[in-house]
Amino acid sequence: MRLPGPFGREAAERRGLARLAAAASAGPAREYAVTGLPAESTPAGELRLLAVDIETTGLDARVDQILSLGFVPVDGYGVQLAGARHIHVRPREGHAGVGASAAIHGLTDDQVAGGIAPAEALDLLFEALTGRVLLAHYAAIEVGFLGALCRAAYGCDLPVRTVDTLELGRRQLPAHREPAPGALRLWSLRTRFGLPVYAAHNALLDALACAELYLAQVAELESASATAVTLGALAR
């Protein structure tokens, strides 16, 4: 019998962390697994997150590759720029390179060929993500690709808790009204809060843009709520 709600999810997360800890005998992946995930009761003001964005060769995590990874920590109500990283990731041997995706993100074969191996990029992510929640805009993309890296490196899925700024944006639109085309895009939601425009499709800038949007969304949620906003409310 599958338990509904957070009890079922938390049990699955514990199993996932145990599998990762067993597969990773040492290093950042094991440290991430044994540290565990933040509690659902953690208030937004105490929550530690890592805003993450990736650029890829396509949208299918089964066959496409991560080309770059950007991330920036968010502690409570502040973005920690000192922890920001932008990493080029070398496609696995035999992959064709950036291909037609270069027209979107502007990365070249030379840039990614000089990047680090996918498994090394995953370990850098684990190091930065330890004790934190993964924050992304349409987080299914990041979780899908990073999960594929985790399965390739450790033979198990990526146990992670996420907050998705796209879903927060959906909840903050007027009720019973279908969003207009493009209304839930990262840059459309930022415009609603008067946030500045950055160049798109740069993994680090997109991660920073997501972090800033999240803080604006949380401020709006907390101003409208009589109680503290918790991770459980943000991640539902």
The structural class is alpha/beta
Shape: globular
Helix content: 40-55%
Please work out how many helical segments DSSP would assign.
Answer: 10
The helix/strand order is: HHEEEEHHHEHEHHHH
Biggest beta sheet attributes: 6 strands, mixed
Structure description:
This protein has ten helices and six strands. The chain has helices at about 5-25, 30-35, 100-105, 110-115, 120-130, 140-155, 165-170, 185-190, 205-225, 230-235, and strands spanning about 50-55, 65-75, 80, 85-90, 135, 160-165. Strands 1, 2, 3, 4, 5 and 6 form a six-stranded mixed β-sheet that branches. The longest helix is centred in the C-terminal third of the chain and has 21 residues, at about 205-225. It starts with a helix and ends with a helix. The mean pLDDT is about 90.
In short:
With 236 residues, the chain is α/β, with parallel strands linked by helices. Helix content is 44%, strand content 14%.
Strand-helix topology:
Layout: H1 5-23, H2 28-35, E1 48-56, E2 66-75, E3 78-79, E4 85-88, H3 102-105, H4 109-113, H5 118-129, E5 133-136, H6 139-154, E6 162-164, H7 165-172, H8 186-192, H9 203-223, H10 231-235
Parallel strand pairs: 1-5, 5-6
Antiparallel strand pairs: 1-2, 2-3, 2-4
Helix pairs in contact: 1-2, 2-5, 7-9, 8-9
Which key terms come to mind for this protein?
globular, alpha/beta, 44% helix, 14% strand, 236 residues, 6-stranded mixed sheet, 10 helices
